Amino acid sequence: MLCGALSAQEQQDINTLLPGGLILTENDSAQLEPLTRAFHLNLFAMGMLAFVVGLFIFYQAMSLSFTQRQFLVGLLCQAGVTGRQLASALCVEVVIWLMIGVAGGNLLGLFLARQLLPSVAVTLSDLYQANIALTTEWHWQWGALSLVIAVLGTLLACGWPLMRLIRTPPIRLTAQMTMVRGSWREFIWQAGMSGVFIMAAVLVYFADHSQFAGFVLIGCLLAAAGLIMPFLLWAAFKAIARWLKSPRLRWFFSDAAASLSYRGVAAMAFMLALAATIGMDTMVGSFRQATQTWLGQRLAADIYVQPATAQAAGIANWAAEQPEVTAVWWRWRQEVPAELKEHTLQVLSVGRSEGEKQSLPMKQHIDGYWSALQTNGTEKVFLASESLALKRGWQPGQRVDLPLRLGENWLMAGIYYDYGNPYSQIFVSDEQWHRLFHQDGKVSLAVHLDNKDRTSAFQGQLQETFGLKPNQVRDNAQIMTQALAVFDRTFVVTATLGKLTLLVSIGGLFIATIAGELSRQRQFALLRCMGMTGKELALLGGGQLAAIGVLTAMIALPLGLLLAQLLIDVVLKYSFGWTMPVKFFPLQYLLTLGTALTALLLAGAWPVWRLVKRSAMLSLREAF
């Protein structure tokens, strides 16, 4: 039946019209809806991070472009061209690049969406049995939004380089690479701004937590890490150069510090992309392990049966008589209207056995919580789901009042993990549940077999004996496989976007390296003429890029782990009421960092190889 929101009286009226043995139940197909919301949240976060990484690369490219033309701009200013005329000409150039970027971004974005849409469609079909079209059309609203974002990004990326070029005195502009030699001052200013963002992050962390506050906190930390990274690299290279005794090595690291004038911002984007990739891999991996563990505990039985209440006793007695059945668990369920933010409080029963105790993945609990829950006295004890405890601010051992039908002065003995449940949920003992509801609720049976290979045969026998439908008898292994498959497909889009962001950042560092090598062509030509071999020149370029990559990875790894911790402890917690233990994956981190560094070195090999293959005298003549 498809219907809108029903009042309690309307539900009762429909129940009276149903034939015997049939009951009215709510559709539980939306139980994994929070997982899809988490997917949207992560996709939004990765999209914004990809935009920030692209913004850094755009800033680096425009800054290099303006720096390389400083001599020409100085000559034009000395010839009488005003700053306003220069600014107008450069703004026209920036606008052209902006329009090219918006058009290309919309085309490539539409192509990417069409490639990833089949995976999303399969996920939605599994979650909600919803069929969506496998094609998507461009809408003008998307183009307008991308244009607004691009304009804001262009102002942020091009504003300072343009002002610096226009406001620098012409006599300084005509001096070769004046702005490059003073780039270390910008690193110091950026480090100062990083301190401001760190202070802002501390203030946000100790303020009231929320989803928005979590994103602000992560944004402040990423901005602080990105701004301070060029300064840390520059300071590290300078310190190593002073510490080493070999003149060649000292010159190598001093030159690496100088190369940050054109590599610094691209290295910043590379670090942020690495940190985001590590953070998302850690969060999704922790989420998957926690979900798998949770499902393994909550789906501890081999077969789950959802019969009508009148059939439950007969099915349980029949199953208990079968030789392959080792145990049958009963679980009763009833929904109670709640007074606070939750629309419904779901009350479930749990038996006394040790297996049923192990099936509840506990997060926090008082000592002796299980014996307290199973007491037959007048003490009213319950276990609360994590999302409910977070909403109400409950802690284990606290006395609380539940909705009127349940009564007051309940002892909350513990909090259990519960991922993806749209209800606020509590567990009470079987005896307590029957005192409250007198078998007026929905029931499910969990059947344990001594041999899992007999599951399919027993399931078929059960359906045939009692005339049960397939959706009333479910295999635990099937549920686990389907749930984890849906999980993996849900997050494949964010993983793809993360890898694309990392690839774009590597491309940005590669382009910055090419531009820098072209600007230093005269220097390399002189070094070749002074006797430096092609092998030594290759070691110079590749070694500096490797040193920047290794130091960047050393900063990105702890930042990515911190990012994952904040996503779990702040963003997911206050968005969905979930937390989970953070798991670490060293081999995956090594693979990510190794792949990124290898790709970086391969990308940087081409400009070095081109310089080595060219004649030293030809390179020197072209440089002048």
Radius of gyration: 32 Å
- Estimate the global geometry from the Cα principal axes: elongated
Question: Mean of residue pLDDT?
Answer: 80
Unreliable runs: 28-32
- What's the helix count? 22
The biggest sheet, with number of strands, parallel, antiparallel or mixed sense and barrel status, is: 10 strands, mixed
Helix content range of the residues, please?
55-70%
- C-alpha end-to-end distance: 82 Å
Strand content: 5-15%
Tell me how many strands there are. Answer: 10
Structural class call reads alpha+beta
Task: Characterize the structure shown.
By secondary structure, the chain is an alpha+beta fold. The chain contains 22 helices and 10 strands. Strands 1, 2, 3, 4, 5, 6, 7, 8, 9 and 10 form a 10-stranded mixed β-sheet that branches. Strand 2 and strand 3 form a beta hairpin. The chain is elongated, with a radius of gyration of 32 Å. It starts with 7 loop residues before the first helix and ends with a helix.
Task: Please render the helix and strand layout as text.
Blueprint: H1 8-17, H2 33-68, H3 70-78, H4 83-128, H5 140-167, H6 170-173, H7 178-181, H8 183-206, H9 211-243, H10 247-298, E1 303-305, H11 309-321, E2 325-337, E3 344-350, H12 354-358, E4 362-365, H13 369-373, E5 381-385, H14 386-392, E6 399-400, E7 410-416, E8 424-429, H15 430-437, E9 442-449, H16 455-466, E10 473-475, H17 476-490, H18 492-519, H19 521-529, H20 534-576, H21 586-613, H22 616-623
Parallel strand pairs: 3-8, 5-7
Antiparallel strand pairs: 1-9, 1-10, 2-3, 2-9, 4-7, 5-8, 6-7
Helix pairs in contact: 2-5, 2-10, 2-18, 4-5, 4-17, 8-9, 9-10, 9-20, 10-17, 10-18, 10-20, 10-21, 18-21, 19-22, 20-21
